[in-house]
Amino acid sequence: MSARIAYIASNTFREAVRDRVLYNLIAFALLMSGAAILVGQVSFGIERLVVVNLGLSAVSLFGIVIAIFIGIGLVSKEIEKRTLYTVLSRPVQRWEFIVGKFFGLAGTLAVNTFLMAIGVFAALLYVSRQFHGTDGWIAVALYFSILQFLMMTALALFFSSFASPLMAAVFAFALFVIGNFSEDLRGFAAMTHGLQRWLATGAAYLLPNFSALNIITSVAHEQPVSSSLIFYNTIYALVYTAMVMAAGVLIFQRRNLK
Amino acid sequence: MPAIEILGLEKTYSVGFWRKRPKRALLPLHLKVEKGEVFGFLGPNGAGKSTTLKLLMGLVFPTSGSAKILDMDLDDPRMKARIGFLPEQPYFYDYLTGQELLNYYAQLSGVPGKERSHRVATMLERVGLKDAANVQLRKFSKGMLQRVGIAQAILHNPEVVFLDEPMSGLDPMGRREVRELMEQLKHEGKTVFFSTHILSDAEALCDRVAVINKGELRGVGAISELTSTVQGKIEIVWRGTAIPAALKNMNAEFFVSGDSVRAILPEQQQEAALETLQRERLHLISLTPLSTSLEEYYLQKVQQASANATQTAAGGRA
Amino acid sequence: MTRTKLVTISAGFILVACMCASILLLNRVDQLRPQATLEEVLYLPSPKVLRRMSLGYDGLLADIYWTRAVQYFGGHHAVGAMHFQLLAPLLNIATQLDPHLVVAYDFGANFLSPPPPNGAGQPQEAVRLTNFGIENNPNEWLLYYNLGFIYYMELKNYAGAADAFSRGSQIPGAHPFMRILAAQMAEHAGEIETARMLWTATYQNSKDKNIRANAAAHLRALRVDDDVAHLETLVDEFRERTGRIPSSFAELQIPGLNGGTPVDPLGNPYKLTPYGHIEVQHPDDFPFIVNGAPPGYIPPKVPKFLPSD
Ligand SMILES: Nc1ncnc2c1ncn2[C@@H]1O[C@H](COP(=O)(O)OP(=O)(O)OP(=O)(O)O)[C@@H](O)[C@H]1O
Ligand SMILES: [Mg+2]
């Protein structure tokens, strides 16, 4: 069982690489080096701030875009092109296929983020000549970004298991935006009353909570991150991902292929 | 234990965007295919052949009914490891090379690592794609894709092979190669279940065929039986208009046309008839055993009214 | 198809279990960083940069910061907090993103200036915010009114208050009492009457639920203060006349009540103590009262607002 998931995952990774997904790194490298050189020249005393803010935001944005746009095609493209026929007529169960696809894209994103992280630290070294102790928090912020990518990948896969690719992209992107304001939404829900309150609170809690995973601003200001936050965020992201994957499996399990 | 046992599989699609209309692609189908048989599944376009195969592969789910392959449920991975499937107009991951694709499928089918590369290489050779082993599939022609498709279906040495129109898109050479390949499978004792429109292929390869039209099974029978419904008759044609007296006693029919005579007579009298013709120094033009062709059977079954077909459908060879 | 069923059941179980777990974890994460999102406001770059970063959605972003301000204040106020240091930055960002967000200025004027726990105790911030609002919305008379209110109530700057009321009274559509208030400021007369007028105006003209509830509570407190002072005068007169303390309100012969018992703004009878003091029955219902609470009464940390307001 695990072997088949690994084979599917590595084939998904290979597909992403051959489809030139990693070319986004070129754009990222250009952005980072351009920014580093520019702020290095102007030197306002906020070089570090700019490089960290820009770098981490770009890592997050690139990753989310990849997670959504590759994620929505992972299943629907295989159904559309009927490549799935020769896979599912083998001893591959449908849930194994979905899970394998997930790990393939997650791996792609992890590698991509790792390479981008090197870029961020290189730019940081260029502008501030040396690393400080607080720069370790940047790695935590990058780690949180990867957790976000896992959740987004699962959501994109989930939507693509029943909606058209375009609709799946719209849904996934909408959830990404809303998820960044999920704390506000939970606050709103708490202000309503009665049945409405139950419904609103339920909905607010089901939305992905990206607020706590987005610590770019505080890291840029060299604020520490508590280890219990790292712990609970990790568990939360994994549990949420598992939840969405389970929902995706439930739908895909009973779907008639074209 | 039959290789394939279909117990009333039925599929109704709902079509249309706003107002869903039911579309009955397959009426309840009962069919048994024994181990070691080559079974042809014949029917015109839109008859429901591919639908049946997709149901058996668990790609779409039946509206009702069930089926067993190798006595296991359709969703049993152990069964899936022992079957192979070629979809119609197959399409594969086009970013892979032929070799990579087969290797991936071998992995998924659980072919042990040591055997894999050897198995892939021999399979590419067997379907005539040795030269294309390292070419990405996006550069393959239609026929090459069909060959890869056949390769992936038999790659893991399955016991039952399902082929949906295996000859389509192939050149005459390729067609013959596939025919030979299927004969080899038969020799190896594999069960082959394939759909086709090409009756000569079916006639040459199959032990039994089923004819299906509009989702309905119209008839099942062994090729040997179907093609000898006029059993034991032969047709002899000779030049001239004379009919020897010896032949007239032979319980035969004669048709004289122009300068030749056509006689239809029981097979047992073939020797005697030929001797007579020789004795009379008549010039023999042809001698053919008479049989209804599969084509006639097929056309008759396809065109027959659908109502009486449901009875024969339940039959099969029990 | 038992295998399919098994997968369905397992996936269903994972779905439900993870859903429950994620809710619990979310609560935990929220506790870990109770106002981390709000604190972001402290690191925000200048509003100009922020507006550019919002890619044209600055109105939406303003609304988000405005609701954050309300939630922040509401949440802290409800537990009796004494510090509201994020209220001013949140309102500043909200109004700088959308300078026409009048409700935010109104909220700021009412809850930035009063001392804790009823507000942030930053009247200067309130004045600054309100002035920024007037700059951008010179035709909103409510903003001038708020400015006058802060000057009068918190800063005791009567000249400033008079100026604000009179400027506001010249705006077309301004409430007529603006002119009266301006005059009263100049005379510096009738403190309680002025306060009553101010709170009434706030109650009638604000659209914010919290502000109205606050104003209503103040108005009731003013009436209780008034009633208690008046009743205690009657008791004093009675004692001078008879040399003893009245045993009941009936003995006082309060005009207009026909020997009945006077009631507080919520309809509950006042209490007459054996020492001749007047008390309300439920002092918790009347935050902000000066008279009428039992001796040694400690008001709850969180002032009680009545849902009916
Ligand atoms: N996904 C689907 N939705 C709706 N109707 C379908 C679907 N798939 C097949 N059908 C209908 O079911 C019927 C049988 O189709 P099927 O593909 O099984 O035919 P076939 O025998 O394989 O024909 P061909 O020889 O052309 O391949 C057709 O009328 C077809 O229109
Ligand atoms: Mg077909």
CATH topology of the largest domain in chain C: Serine Threonine Protein Phosphatase 5, Tetratricopeptide repeat
- Helical stretch tally of chain B: 12
Q: Any guess at the CATH architecture of the largest domain in chain B?
A: 3-Layer(aba) Sandwich
Beta content of chain C: under 5%
CATH topology of the largest domain in chain B: Rossmann fold
Helix-and-strand structural type of chain C: mainly alpha
Radius of gyration of chain C: 26 Å
Which sequence of SSEs, written as H and E, runs from N to C of chain B? EEEHEEHEHHHEHEHEEHEHEEHEHH
End-to-end Cα distance of chain B: 11 Å
Main sheet makeup of chain C: 2 strands, antiparallel
Please give the order of strands in the largest beta sheet of chain C: 1-2
Sketch the topology of chain C as an H/E string, one letter per element.
HHHHHHHHHHHHHEE
CATH superfamily of the largest domain in chain C: Tetratricopeptide repeat domain
What is the subunit arrangement here?
heterotrimer
Shape assignment of chain C: flat
Which sheet architecture does the biggest sheet of chain B show? Answer: 6 strands, mixed
The whole-number mean of residue pLDDT values of chain C reads 81
In whole angstroms, the N-to-C terminal distance of chain C is 62 Å
CATH class wording of the largest domain in chain B = Alpha Beta
DSSP strand tally of chain B: 14
Question: Topology, please?
Answer:
The complex is a heterotrimer of chains A (258), B (318) and C (309).
Chain A: H1 2-18, H2 24-42, H3 47-81, H4 85-88, H5 94-128, H6 136-160, H7 165-180, H8 182-191, H9 194-206, H10 216-220, H11 227-253
Helix pairs in contact in A: 1-5, 2-3, 2-5, 3-5, 3-6, 3-7, 5-6, 5-11, 6-7, 6-11, 8-9
Chain B: E1 4-15, E2 21-33, E3 38-42, H1 49-56, E4 64-69, E5 72-73, H2 77-80, E6 83-86, H3 98-108, H4 113-126, H5 142-154, E7 160-164, H6 172-187, E8 191-196, H7 199-205, E9 208-213, E10 216-222, H8 223-226, E11 233-239, H9 245-248, E12 253-257, E13 260-266, H10 270-279, E14 284-289, H11 294-303, H12 309-315
Parallel strand pairs in B: 3-8, 3-9, 6-7, 7-8
Antiparallel strand pairs in B: 1-2, 1-4, 4-5, 9-10, 11-13, 11-14, 12-13
Chain C: H1 2-32, H2 36-43, H3 47-53, H4 58-78, H5 87-97, H6 102-112, H7 123-136, H8 141-153, H9 158-169, H10 177-187, H11 191-205, H12 209-242, H13 249-252, E1 271-272, E2 278-279
Antiparallel strand pairs in C: 1-2
Helix pairs in contact in C: 4-5, 5-6, 5-7, 6-7, 6-8, 7-8, 8-9, 8-11, 9-10, 11-12
Bound molecules: adenosine-5'-triphosphate and magnesium ion.
